[in-house]
């Protein structure tokens, strides 16, 4: 059973729209618990309290590929973190390995500062490109983690093997590390080396769990429903040959 | 230059272009328009790459000015300018540009990869100390099985692993798990793309 | 400020301080005059400064004669520090109880009895309107009915008609004599003495005793807080307690930086790995057995595809290798490329990574410099396609159009006569993906497999191979062949009946490195366990401590 791509797109779109309007009054009803986000929220609050800095790594990749979705999840997280911690003593830093994502990160931070009415505190260097290949990016981000009183690193974006260097550096400073990547190698490395890994599609639920707008919540619920649809299709297509044999 | 488009305009442009590219997969008549849009996107991405370099330059220039680990930043700036000039002069396949790449960038990145091997070995050794649960145990057991099946250890091969257990894990268990993860990632990517098309997710600011 | 020895310190004072001293002395002398008669015993020490004397006097006044201590002039700045005059309480016995027990009493009002025993306080000045309220006029005849509905059950005026100790008849009729229902059993625990024996409260149980001392002597009773809970309720309580305990541990969220044992372990692991890899390289003995050819059928598929290529066939190579993987992947890439060059294939390189074209040149000139096509530069490098997947999609749609920018610069790569026949991607005889990670290879497979009748093959780093297996095993098979890592290189050389000395040495080093990693993970795990079992380290355990991780992990597993 091979459903064409437009059908999947249409189904997903319909589910998002339905959940956006249907569950507007009780949006958090169906969200399951993801410990990584609970831990991250607590770490953000503690970092603001003790005056340490948060670092959001948005990874490499480009905005014109599938890795862009992971970078957008990272940007959503950056916005949430910036709106909480931008007016603290140590405002959050964003690092990226791509020029286009850098522009988006700068725009996200600028918007957050403007919302908090502290636009004059914003500096362009709060978002940095530390390298343009995965390992040069990680190499450039290492001094930031080690030297800037970083208490937590959220590595949310397109990461591969280089993620291991960043999580190791964060652990060395005693900080908290959350890792989420669309890349399966990156996910495996996060599972072994980060404090809280985001596995599979959990990365794309970042907006919903970090208290963003209702569409994020609807999107997370749509993903859950679609996953069940896929499971059902897999089971049906597996059983069909058995019945055909009889 | 400080060009700022109002949010509704930028949102409308983003949604319209995304919609055209998406529908071109269904409507073949839009293929030419899609190719044109992709051409623009490629050009803009290349420019963004240069802006990324400019940001890297600015950050380290600021460090040199403020004296914050200025030596390293100064080295980076000099190397960056020199490489840029050389590559611009003789092209990326020129002799000097190739020498710089082969003798500076390649060894540095390969060394980082070697450091990563050590870091991951340490992380694997500590995983049961840091996260005591069933999945960590499964992870560790699978890791051992795959390492034993990846080749001979100290010159000694374990046929049970290299010929029986290893291929079974590689070809059946891990492939099933990977497909599940890939499906999850694909669904997440699809949902994110649609959120952007709906205009509710605006990575371009709001 | 310093002054010379022998000099009077007062002389060295600045003028403003001298003025202040003078003013203070004048004020203190005035205060002495007004307050002197009220200080019976405590004479101020002559050596004390005047301001301290004034404070002492003020305090002594308030303790001895509270009324007289009230100054007619506004209170000075220290007035707030004066103790509260006892006449503010109006109860003599409560005054004494306060002295005996300074602990704050509960805000339960004392019975009115105490008020009758207290000495009459000096009558304060009451405004005229308040005095009128104190002496109410008797209501006139027509107002009686209206007022009667508003009369409270107990009026202050009526109590004056009763002699102390007498009870009204209605109250006597209500005397309990054991007919009241027993109160809450806890009252008997709280209050000793079951019933009042005498007085107006005789017969009532659980009454408050009149004597404050009796209250002081009561030990706080012990209550039973044990509740009868069902198993389900107990589980909920336990869950709630755990939740609250977790929330109340914010300080645990900071992990201590890497300790010396952890750093030592890190360093030792690094040294051990380096030594393990160096040993076979220095030894140069072929220690590790080569893998079986049957172990990697997907490598044999690549070999067969290349063997079947006609001479001079155009082959597109998507070269997406990261610099970090150059060391590992160059052996396998060189093995496949040399095979292609020996078959006189016309190689065309393109990359979606900025460093891809440079690494391709590097491999050609470092590893395959002896090939005639490399020496004669008989290959085409289309360069870097900026834009990731979108650029790749565009290239697959229109290979010539996507490299138009290079043409504009006068560097037309398509000018090579051997590429005249290439107008679309399907014109290539074979497409080879060279990639370090699975993601780049996936892009090519997902975007291009449907448009390539000849199919795709992949040459990758070892870490990408497991992730690409779904495409090898899929139906239809979108990936025709795969060769990866050092193992793939050794197998491929065996297929070609060749043996590269470098790759052989690397294979031995790989074998020893692999063994060292297995050993280190095992020993490192033991070391970590021993270190963390020590008591001093248990207290410094990380926040994301095993207990917490166990919770989160099990949640995830569930």
Tell me about the biggest sheet of chain C?
6 strands, parallel
The CATH class name of one domain in chain C reads: Alpha Beta
| Rg over CA atoms of chain A | 19 Å
CATH level-3 fold name of one domain in chain C = Rossmann fold
Quaternary arrangement of the chains shown? heterotrimer
What fraction of the residues of chain C are assigned to beta strands by DSSP?
A: 5-15%
Q: Count the helices of chain C. How many? A: 26
Q: Give the number of helices of chain A.
A: 9
Number of structural domains of chain A: 2
Name the helicity range of chain A: 55-70%
* CATH H-tier superfamily of one domain in chain C: MTH777-like
Instruction: Write down the overall geometry of chain A.
Output: globular
Mean pLDDT of chain C: 68
Give the topology string of chain A: H per helix, E per strand.
HHEHEHEHEHEHEHH
Rounded to the nearest angstrom, the distance between the terminal CA atoms of chain C is: 74 Å
Specify the biggest β-sheet of chain A: 6 strands, parallel
The total of beta strands of chain C comes to 6
Strand order of the largest sheet of chain A: 3-2-1-4-5-6
Overall SS class of chain C:
alpha/beta
Summarize the amount of helix of chain C as a percent range. 40-55%
In short:
Chain B is an all-alpha fold and 206 residues long. Chain B has helices spanning 7-24, 31-66, 70-90, 95-130, 134-149, 159-198.
What does this structure look like?
The complex is a heterotrimer of chains A (246), B (206) and C (558). Chain A is 57% helix and 13% strand. Chain A has 9 helices and 6 strands, in the order ααβαβαβαβαβαβαα. A 6-stranded parallel sheet of chain A has the order 3-2-1-4-5-6, sandwiched between helices. In chain A, strand 2, helix 4 and strand 3 form a beta-alpha-beta unit. Chain A starts with a helix and ends with a helix. Chain B has a domain at 131-206. Chain B is 81% helix and 0% strand. The radius of gyration of chain B is 25 Å and the shape is extended. The relative contact order of chain B is 0.07. Chain C has 558 residues and is of the alpha/beta class. Among the domains of chain C are: 258-287 and 504-558, no CATH class; 293-499, Rossmann fold (3-Layer(aba) Sandwich). Chain C has helices at residues 15-35, 50-64, 66-69, 92-100, 113-117, 128-134, 143-148, 156-159, 169-173, 185-190, 212-217, 231-247, 260-283, 297-307, 326-342, 356-367, 372-375, 388-397, 399-402, 404-408, 438-448, 465-473, 485-495, 501-533, 535-539, 546-557, and strands at residues 314-320, 346-351, 380-384, 430-435, 456-460, 479-484. At the B-C interface, helix 2, helix 4, helix 5 and helix 6 of B face helix 13, helix 15, helix 16, helix 18 and helix 22 of C.
């Amino acid at each position: 059973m091979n459903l064409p791509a437009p059908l999947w797109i249409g189904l997903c779109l319909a589910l998002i729209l339905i959940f956006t309007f249907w569950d507007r009054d009780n949006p958090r009803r169906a969200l399951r618990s993801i410990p990584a986000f609970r831990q991250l929220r607590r770490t953000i609050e503690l970092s603001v309290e003790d005056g340490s800095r948060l670092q959001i790594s948005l990874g490499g990749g480009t905005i014109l590929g599938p890795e862009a979705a992971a970078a957008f999840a990272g940007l959503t997280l950056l916005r949430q973190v910036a709106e909480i911690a931008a007016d603290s003593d140590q405002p959050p830093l964003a690092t990226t390995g791509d020029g286009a994502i850098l522009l988006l990160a700068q725009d996200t931070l600028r918007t957050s500062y403007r919302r908090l009415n502290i636009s004059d505190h914003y500096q362009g260097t709060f978002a940095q490109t530390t390298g343009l290949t995965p390992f040069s990016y990680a190499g450039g981000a290492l001094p930031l983690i080690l030297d800037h009183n970083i208490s937590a690193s959220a590595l949310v974006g397109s990461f591969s093997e280089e993620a291991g260097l960043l999580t190791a550096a964060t652990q060395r400073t005693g900080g908290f590390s959350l890792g989420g990547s669309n890349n399966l190698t990156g996910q495996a490395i996060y599972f072994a080396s980060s404090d809280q890994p985001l596995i599979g599609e959990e990365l794309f639920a970042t907006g919903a769990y970090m208290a963003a707008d209702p569409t994020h919540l609807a999107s997370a619920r749509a993903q859950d429903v679609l996953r069940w649809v896929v499971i059902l299709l897999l089971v049906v297509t597996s059983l069909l040959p058995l019945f055909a044999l009889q | 230059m400080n060009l700022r488009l109002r949010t509704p305009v930028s949102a409308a442009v983003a949604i319209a272009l995304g919609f055209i590219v998406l529908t071109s997969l269904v409507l073949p008549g839009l293929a030419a328009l899609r190719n044109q849009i992709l051409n623009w996107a490629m050009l803009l991405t290349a420019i963004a790459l240069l802006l990324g370099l400019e940001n890297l330059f600015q950050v380290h220039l600021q460090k040199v000015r403020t004296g914050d680990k200025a030596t390293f930043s100064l080295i980076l700036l000099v190397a960056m300018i020199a490489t840029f000039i050389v590559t611009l002069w003789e092209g990326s396949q020129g002799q000097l540009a190739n020498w710089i790449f082969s003798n500076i960038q390649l060894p540095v990145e390969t060394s980082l990869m070697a450091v990563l091997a050590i870091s991951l070995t340490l992380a694997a050794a500590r995983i049961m100390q840091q996260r005591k649960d069933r999945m960590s145990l499964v992870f560790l057991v699978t890791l051992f099985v795959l390492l034993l099946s990846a080749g001979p250890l100290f010159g000694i091969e374990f046929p049970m692993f290299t010929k029986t257990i290893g291929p079974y894990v590689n070809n059946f268990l891990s492939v099933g798990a990977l497909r599940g993860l890939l499906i999850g990632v694909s669904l997440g990517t699809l949902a994110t793309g649609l959120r952007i098309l709906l205009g509710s997710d605006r990575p371009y600011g709001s | 400020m310093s002054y010379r020895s022998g000099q009077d310190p007062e002389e060295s004072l600045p003028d403003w301080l001298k003025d202040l001293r003078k003013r203070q002395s004048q004020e203190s002398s005035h205060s002495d005059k007004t307050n002197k008669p009220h200080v019976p015993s405590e004479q101020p020490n002559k050596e004390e400064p005047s301001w301290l004397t004034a404070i002492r006097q003020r305090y002594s006044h308030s303790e001895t004669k509270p009324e007289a201590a009230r100054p007619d002039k506004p209170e000075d700045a220290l007035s707030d520090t004066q103790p509260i005059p006892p006449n503010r309480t109006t109860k003599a016995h409560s005054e004494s109880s306060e002295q005996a027990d300074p602990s704050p009493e509960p805000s339960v009002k004392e019975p009115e009895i105490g008020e009758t025993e207290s000495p009459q306080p000096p009558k304060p000045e009451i405004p005229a309107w308040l005095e009128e309220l104190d002496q109410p006029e008797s209501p006139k005849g027509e107002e009686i009915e209206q007022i009667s509905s508003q009369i409270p059950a107990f009026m202050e005026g009526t109590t004056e008609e009763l002699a102390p100790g007498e009870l009204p008849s209605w109250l006597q009729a209500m005397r309990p004599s054991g007919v009241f229902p027993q109160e809450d059993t806890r009252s008997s625990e709280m209050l000793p003495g079951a019933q009042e024996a005498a007085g107006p409260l005789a017969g009532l149980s659980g009454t408050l005793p009149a004597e404050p001392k009796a209250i002081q002597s009561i030990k706080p009773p012990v209550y039973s807080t044990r509740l009868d809970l069902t198993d389900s309720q107990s589980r909920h309580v336990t869950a709630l307690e755990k939740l609250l305990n977790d929330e109340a541990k914010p300080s645990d969220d900071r992990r201590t930086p890497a300790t010396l044992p952890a750093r030592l372990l890190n360093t030792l692991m690094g040294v051990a790995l380096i030594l393990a890899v160096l040993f076979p390289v220095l030894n140069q003995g072929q220690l590790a057995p080569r893998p079986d050819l049957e172990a990697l059928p997907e490598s044999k598929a690549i070999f067969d595809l290349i063997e079947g290529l006609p001479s001079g066939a155009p082959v597109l190579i998507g070269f997406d290798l990261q610099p970090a993987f150059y060391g590992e992947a160059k052996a396998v890439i060189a093995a496949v490329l040399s095979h292609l060059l020996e078959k006189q294939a016309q190689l065309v390189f393109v990359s979606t990574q900025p460093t891809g074209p440079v690494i391709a040149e590097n491999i050609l000139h470092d590893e395959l410099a002896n090939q005639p096509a490399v020496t004669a530069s008989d290959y085409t490098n289309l360069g870097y396609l900026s834009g990731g997947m979108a650029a790749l999609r565009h290239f697959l749609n229109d290979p010539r159009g996507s490299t138009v920018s290079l043409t504009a610069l006068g560097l037309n790569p398509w000018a090579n006569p051997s590429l005249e026949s290439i107008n679309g991607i399907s014109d290539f005889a074979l497409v080879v993906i060279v990639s370090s990670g699975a993601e780049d290879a996936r892009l090519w497979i997902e975007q291009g497999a449907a448009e390539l009748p000849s199919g795709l093959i992949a040459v990758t780093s070892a870490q990408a191979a497991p992730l690409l297996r779904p495409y090898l095993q899929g139906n239809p098979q979108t990936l025709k062949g795969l060769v990866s890592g050092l193992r793939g290189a050794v197998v491929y050389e065996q297929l070609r009946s060749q043996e590269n000395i470098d790759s052989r040495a690397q294979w031995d080093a790989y074998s020893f490195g692999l063994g060292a990693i297995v050993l280190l993970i095992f020993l490192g795990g033991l070391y970590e366990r021993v270190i963390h079992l020590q008591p001093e380290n248990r207290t410094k355990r990380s926040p994301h401590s095993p207990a917490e991780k166990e919770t989160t992990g099990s949640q995830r597993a569930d």
